[in-house]
Every structure is written in C-alpha cells, then in structure tokens.
C-alpha cells in the first residue's frame, strides 16, 4: 500500500506544481487554493508512505515523479522546448527512479 500512496503523492506533486504556475505568484485565488490542497494531500500521502518505506527511497521516488510529471506538463501544456539535453536529463531521472525501486526490494 505504501507504494500506491507514494505514486499518488508524486502525481499530486505534479498537480500542485501546475496550479502554482497557474496561480501567477499566488495572485489568483482558485489556482492558489488548489495548489495548497494538492500540496497538503501530497505531503500527507508521502508521510503515509514513509511509515514503511525508507526515507531516501520515498523522497527520491516522490520528487522524481514530480520532476518527470512537471517536465511532461511543461512540454504538453506550456510548449516548453524538447531538447536533447532535457530529454537525456529526464531519461536519467527515470533510470534513477527504476534503480531506486529495484534497490528497495
């Protein structure tokens, strides 16, 4: 169950990052509120996952899901550039996440 909590915590990290961008520096109320709710939910699920998962594993996976998710959202929704260096960096993050998961079993 901890891994499920962790995946949802990571996905909520993407949600709050997206809405933080939409909040325009917390000057727009609804996106700011969604940011706050998603942030609290993400941290809460991370805390639940950390009950049984090692700190380093849980935190690395959580931030990795958030980083890759934000990378994809930036490309798809904000037309951020897809460069060779950015793709290589994303692939290295994914490889690190997979290795961390394998090392945790």
TrEMBL record:
Kindly state which keywords UniProt assigns to this record, in alphabetical order: Cell membrane, Membrane, Transmembrane, Transmembrane helix, Transport
- Give the domain of life: Bacteria
Q: State the name under which the record lists this protein.
A: Guanidinium exporter
Upper lineage is: Bacteria, Pseudomonadati, Bacteroidota, Cytophagia, Cytophagales
Q: Where in the cell is it found?
A: Cell membrane
A Pfam match: Multi_Drug_Res
MF GO annotations:
transmembrane transporter activity
GO BP terms: xenobiotic detoxification by transmembrane export across the plasma membrane
